[in-house]
Write a structure and sequence with these properties.
Structural class: mainly alpha
Shape: globular
């Protein structure tokens, strides 16, 4: 990569770390950037997963106050995220690269729809939480596992999906506390998938280091000031970048 490309990847990491801490879907920013600087899709995806792990951890730490009193819930759901992340990572490495290139445009399109619908989902969740079970039950565990599989395989908008599942299935809980739990579960998925990739995948280490540095800073920024940023602007940027990724992959 050239110096300017390195700066671009670093900046994308900062933005992704911030947006992941607040909502999710930072991969829709970093993955297209890695494609644009010349990495093959699977290499870009693997490197992106590793690079965003520090950002996920940073965001979870930034929301540590909202995690108070959720230890048991987090431990139960962590098992689902752990297993799902492993399965997703193994699928990515087992399926041919052509399958990934064929599947990912559809996954990005689904993720973009979720990002656009996020405000409506939030309003619907506020109503459903009053009627939902207080601890989620088996339905939530299975949903978190499935999201973990998706996250280990690709992961764009994983946070949006997790927040929707938590909001629908857990009653009488503040959305910010659910967002804190979402950050922990996403960090587990990214972390375990990254561990698998370390041993069995080809990794672009320069991209990983740049994304790691940027996302760690972005995670703290997102946790501190993310609530004051304009959600429509952030969603607009994500949609534009995601559409660009779909066009590039199909081309």
């Amino acid at each position: 990569m050239t110096f300017l490309e390195c700066v671009l990847v670093l900046a994308a990491g900062v933005f992704a770390g911030a947006i992941n801490a607040v909502v999710g879907s930072g991969t829709l920013v970093t993955f297209p950037v890695l494609l644009a600087v010349g990495y093959a899709p699977v290499v870009a995806n693997v490197s992106n997963t590793l690079g965003l792990v520090p950002g996920s951890v940073s965001g979870a730490i930034g929301y540590r106050r909202e995690l108070a009193g959720q230890r048991r819930r987090a431990l139960v759901l962590a098992g689902a995220s752990l297993l799902g992340g492993i399965v997703g990572a193994v699928l990515l490495l087992s399926l041919p690269g052509s399958a990934f290139e064929a599947i990912v445009p559809a996954l990005i399109a689904i993720a973009l729809v979720l990002v656009v619908l996020q405000p409506r989902l939030s309003r619907a969740l506020a109503e459903r939480r009053r009627r939902a079970r207080p601890h989620g039950g088996p339905l939530l565990w299975g949903g978190v596992f499935g999201t973990g599989v998706y996250g280990g395989y690709f992961g764009a908008a994983q946070g949006v999906i997790l927040l929707a599942l938590l909001g629908i299935t857990i009653a009488d809980e503040d959305l910010q506390r659910l967002n804190a739990l979402k950050n922990v579960l996403a960090a587990i998925v990214n972390g375990v998938a990254a561990a698998v990739f370390l041993f069995f995948a080809h990794i672009a280490w320069l991209a990983v280091l740049l994304l790691a540095a940027g996302s760690a800073v972005g995670g703290q920024l997102g946790a501190r000031i993310g609530r004051s940023l304009s959600p429509p602007v952030m969603r607009g940027v994500i949609v534009v970048v995601g559409v660009a990724a779909i066009v590039q992959l199909l081309a």
